[in-house]
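Lab notebook, bench 4. Still working through the backlog of constructs that have no structural model yet. Next entry is a single chain of 126 residues. Request: give me the structure tokens for it.
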Amino acid sequence: MPSSRFVDPGELRVACEKVEPWLAGTGPKPERADVAKAVRLSLRKLAELAPGRSVEVRVPPFAAVQCVAGPRHTRGTPPNVVETDPRTWLELVLGRLKWTDAVEEARVDASGARADIAQWLPIVRL
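Model written out:
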């Protein structure tokens, strides 16, 4: 999902506001398109905040980005991978879940020496 466009902070905020009640447990699961938009915009924002290509962050089935400065990955399985589900990703993005807790609870699979992206989280504060 590479994109050279910068993420509009207002658009990212609105996308996150649509899913926040679900994450808080006060609302129903949002439409798939709303979850997808929040995931995609927040991943693109992460790539803006941590430019580079040494870590691949995957949130299936919606998107993946490469980010974090360091040795560039070009083929095959990247040496540094972060993978999680959409809900966990959005909880991390909004600061509802700490990176260390997500890793300890096996809600995030982070492999490789550069796969710790905690310093860029949360991405959005509501």
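Notes after review: The chain has a mean pLDDT of 93. The helical segments are 9-24, 32-49, 86-93, 99-104. Flag for follow-up if needed.
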